[in-house]
Amino acid sequence: IYGRDARSSYRLLWTSLKSKIRRSSFNMRISRCSPPLVLCVVFGLGFLFLLRNVHQFQSALDRNHREHMEIKSSLQSLHEGASFAVQGGGGGGNEHRQSFSMYKQNNRQHPTLWLASRSIDHLNHIVNAFERVGYHIIREPSSRWDVMWSYDYPFSGRWSQRIHNMHSYQKVNHFPGSGFITNKQSLSTSKISSLPRAYRIPEDVDKLKSYAKLNPNTMWVMKSNDHRGIRIKRLDEMDLSPSGHLNFAQEFIRNPFLIDGRKFDIGVYVVITSMNPLRVYVYEDEVLLRFCSKDYHPLDVDDVAKYVVLDEYTSVKDLPSMKEYAVRQRFSAKQSLNAYLRKKGLNAAGVWNAIRKSIEEVTQAKENDIKSAMSSYPWHSSFFELVRFDFVLDEMLNVWLMEVNMSPNLSSAMHAENARMYEQVVYNTLALVGLARWTAGTLNSVESAEKDMLVSDQDIAAVHEECVTAECGQCANVVCSLCRQCRSDPQTDELKLAFLEHINRGNFRRVVPTPLLKRPSSVMSSSDHSLSAPNKVIAMWFRAKCLDDLAWCT
Fold first, then answer.
1. CA atoms of 384 and 211, how far apart (whole Å)
2. Which residues does 284 contact at the CB level (< 8 Å), separation at least 6?
3. Confidence at residue 253, expressed as pLDDT on a 0 to 100 scale
4. Which end of the chain is more exposed for a tag (fewer CB within 10 A), N or C?
5. Model pTM?
6. What pLDDT does 48 receive?
7. With 0-12 CB in 10 A as exposed, 13-18 as middle and 19+ as buried, what is 309?
8. How far apart are the C-alpha atoms of 125 and 122, rounded to whole Å?
């Protein structure tokens, strides 16, 4: 601009600009403005627009770079997972595939666990399991929750109304009326073959006295429903009055099976997934094996550590006869007990068969009571229950059921060696009841296409030949109830839940409906006549699936 040509160009530009502005509708008096001022304004505005465009361009570049790096990272994780699976680490591949799926669906919320407990210090393994499968955990009640996990019975207190108003997709870890199984008096005074004889106090005092007169050497365990104050006494030492604060008396098993002189109990974890129809599963791979802290003989009724398993019990690894299995071979407690019994030439399989039979008998005996308690709740498929059945063996290896624990202790604070088992039990429970899902999102966000991906009508199809007959075209017999044209929508939903439980059961195995040791000859069974209609349908369906595939027999 310092040369003559530049100055001429400047004047020409200014003259042209001034002429155009005069002709504009704004009628500005540009002649009063100095040419440098106007040009400064024009160039200033242009510079500002340039800065704005540069900033937007840079922001777009940064955003694209971040998205590129996220996609690259996800693809790299997926590639590493696939490579890991090819090299023998199949679980890692699933982990990375899930991670990539979560990236694609990052707008979907995590499911929420409402942990309804006064304290959570003893629930750390439950928290760990839920967090590892993607749950967000809250302590205070909220309208947005997917699973409620309550340590106490939640149906009679401050949360009762909230559960009454729950949505169909929400889950609670107890059944209404589960106390019919876990209440000591309700259980012990039931007519179940594996329960030691018991009498309610004061209602059955006369019956108790009559039996004790015929069996004068019988010792009795005095029990109350608060799980405290267990003592062995003779009848003449017992306070049988209504004010005696005792709920019932149970016959004491005087000849327990001992290992290294110690009495022990066997804790078996059980999950009830449905009451109508009844479906029950037992955790197959491990048990809680607890030994008394003192030798049983010589028996001293005043020293409860000799015959009651206390909190400070002796673990499997501390018994001389079990160390070879539990410590050196790193067997599980169940594997160690099996190895010990077989070494002694005893029938270990018979013990577990008797335990399964007892679990089946108890749940079937209490089924109607619990169904009645559930009748006021709208969503019967919203409940499940994890309990622990505690058994003892006598010297003849007879199995005796001592109690069933609601919300069994899953804290390893006093016995760190149990941590692995507790978290495996919880994780397998979540998988069994459909709460540990590979698909992302809340339980309420599952779309119909996703439901069909998990389980479809084709998956639950059974008795294929019968369903296309003219007889089943009219739904003329009970077998036809398995056919699509004869099933109701709720029955279809129950079969789909049973299908998902079977394929996601992990280390659980079915107890009810009764598992089959071999392929059946027919879908029907002579034992079906005693079953309710829903139980009959589910039993026939499992037999039909077993006929097609032996994996469905157990």
1. 39
2. 507, 508, 509
3. 95
4. N
5. 0.80
6. 63
7. buried
8. 8
